[in-house]
Amino acid sequence: MGFGLPGAIAAKLARPDLPVVCMLGDGCFQMTCGEVAVAKRMGLSLPVVVLDDKWLGLIKVKQIRRQFPLYGTELQTEDYTEPPAHYFGVPAVGVRSPAALEAAVTKALSANGPTVIEAVVDSDHYIDTVYD
User: Fold this and answer.
1) What is the pLDDT along the chain (132 residues), one digit of tens a residue?
2) SS3 of 34, please?
3) Element (DSSP H or E) covering residue 48
4) Structural domain for 17, as ranges
5) Residue 131 and residue 15: Cα distance in Å, rounded?
């Protein structure tokens, strides 16, 4: 956790001729969101897709399976319809469907800098699809 955004920046620096898309969870983004300022300063065309499920999902699954109380895994309790307009001056957009995600990533790939794309996802299936 915490590698996605710095890794994507490194990939774009190593291969500026190729499209790079960063995809990470909301917890990882919270740990490294300041790096979008680095991508902006460097003028990197980099879509940053944040999969927002409002939890540290994998830790939550482990707590449930071990019958521990849920503690320290909920990232956000309030509901909202859109992300902030920007992070550190980097534009942010919210998407709620696969078609909207595709359109946002396509647009972000041709931008003159990074774009944060918040994709809200449902984590209810994690308990059935994630294994220890």
Assistant:
1) 789 999 999 999 999 999 999 999 888 888 898 999 999 999 999 999 998 876 565 666 666 666 777 665 566 666 666 666 777 889 999 998 999 999 999 999 999 999 999 988 766 655 566 665
2) coil
3) strand 47-52
4) 4-91+98-129
5) 34
Tell me which H or E stretch contains 90.
strand 90-95
Torsion of CA 113, 108, 3, 16, to 10 degrees: -60
- In DSSP terms, 115 is beta-bridged to 47
Q: Which two structure tokens, joined as six digits, stand for 74? A: 């909920």
Task: Read off the CATH number of the domain in which 14 is found.
Answer: 3.40.50.970
Tokens of 39: 């991508």
Predicted structure pTM score: 0.79
| Domains in the chain, number | 1
Is there a contact between 52 and 26 (Cβ–Cβ < 8 Å)?
yes
